[in-house]
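ping. complex inputs:
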Amino acid sequence: MTGQIGNAPRDFAADPLLDVAELSKRFPLARRGWLGGRAPAMVHAVDDVSFTLGRGETLGLVGESGCGKSTLVRLIARLTDPTSGSIRFNARELAALPARDFARDADRARIQIVFQDAGESINPRFTAADAIADPLRKLRGLRGAALQAKVAEAATLCGLPLELLDRFPHQLSGGQRARVGIARAIAPRPDLLVLDEPTAALDVSVQVTILQLLVTLRETLGISYVFVSHDLNVVRLLCDRVVVMYLGRIVEVGPARAVFDNPLHPYTRGLIAAVPRLDGLRAGGLRLAGDPKSPIDPDPHACRFHGRCPVGTDRCGTEMPALRRFPGSRQAACHFATEPA
Amino acid sequence: MTAILDVRDFSVEFRTRSGIVHALDRISFQVARGETMALVGESGSGKSVTAYALLGLLDAAGRITGGSATLEGVELTQASPKELARIRGARAAMIFQNPRAALNPIRPIGRQIADVVRRHAGLSRRDADARAVEMLREVGIPDPARRFAAYPFELSGGMCQRVMIAIAVATRPALLIADEPTTGLDVTTQAVVMDIIQSLAAETGMATILITHDLALAAERSGRIAVMHAGHIVEDAVTAELLAHPRHPYTRRLLAATPTAAGGLADLRAIPGSLPDLRRTDLPPCRFAARCEQRLPACEAPMAWRHLAPAHRVACWNPA
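pong. complex structure:
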């Protein structure tokens, strides 16, 4: 009986692998006017985000497109620099280290990322073996027979037959490409693996095998995952805890099962209600109409969900709700969230 | 129930350099007025080819090799390109995955809707523009008079899909084919877009074919589901019946691989094997046989439909 591990309650808080605090990333829009005119308008992509990730834990990151998931992932993986805040990884502060320098840092191999569509993210002129060997060569300095042995080992761990290693991405099936993407990420033996929608392009049948592979790798290698997905059913299957984001801010955090069964934040409720289910449409399902507000210079005193929220009042337009703690290691940023029954 | 679309023994082949791909093999189904039928299956099963072939949109390598398809009594397989061009847009419409790519990027969205109604309903320019604004309102785009002049790049993916729906239904077609209409959209947007399609279908009596790989979406949004595998329809039943009592081994496998709200990962099962190479000349009568654990010697015999209930048929010699 494997695979259920993911949902068993464990205490990860004692020894976090990753501790993100008050992390923000703003992107300037084109400067208005000449020579230091007004300050440029800012897109608040990630705004004051704090969370921890325990060793061996899998954290789900969900939210609509444009909510800042990808920016947050790029910050954690240290591919871009934060505007402010701290990222502590293995008790080392990484936020101050420019992304350019981190590319050659010893910890680069410890944080790896699996991109959405391996068909798009793998160099089309690299064979599967080249793709897996590349990070080993650059980050671990391996060459020759040692390199080949590590490539074969990573491929085997990911269930990729060795005879496929000479093939180019276009000669592989979607599931095989996904395995190459995972193999190249785990080859340098990271502590933290960021998975950005790893199964979005796959059929359900192939998706099952990839999810099972991820569970096996988590157990054999002891890696922690940050799992980004828009498919809440998949997040529920794989994740210990889940972080729900809305317009750059965290609106809810908690154990995956508790959040899905009994969401505290009205946005989480709307998101879960919108997920199609095999047992058919629920009558009177909550609908989140409209689109999120603009992320450009949002009102710092208003809840980002105000205006789209089914329960909000005038208070939400003048007072930004803070992330409050609730029993069962849960947090929610809503004035009207009440203790779970 | 009168069938708006009646497809019988419909076959499509593609000629490629590496052989003839037998993409669709004698598929048959009917869609009634006001009905939503979902066509589900893995990628490569022939869902989209069915839609493209019906509307005469196959690329040059593909051709219809047999069978018939009638839309409101008009035989589509015999129709001239000119007739098909009239039917497309006027009586049958299609919306595509990735709406931003399907819309004209350099023409205002309102104009694109007006183009369709001028072409097919013969309205004057002013009437067509008014109709376009009305359609934008109908699909729930806020401030439609102003959005008339917007370009696709100015709109979100969900808004673009609404524009495409507006273009498709502006002429009140009898049949709407929605090919993965919400793939790539957020679940919240997906729910809203599907609500719009459903309410339009309910108002106008339009028949809808919902092509999707997502069984859960089909479960919520269709009255009937036809399951495709490797160019065959293998099972066809009323949605609740198909989900509660799937009879074809492939349907059962597909359901067993679909994540649910209740089950864990250990409850999910992958489908062994893969789709057969559709270029083979010796394709077996049942294209699932090689992947099937319920295979019998009888499975070598030519496939025949079994009618298990008035609205439940399965193409299997040994249904569960």
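The first strand of chain A starts at residue 16 and ends at 28.
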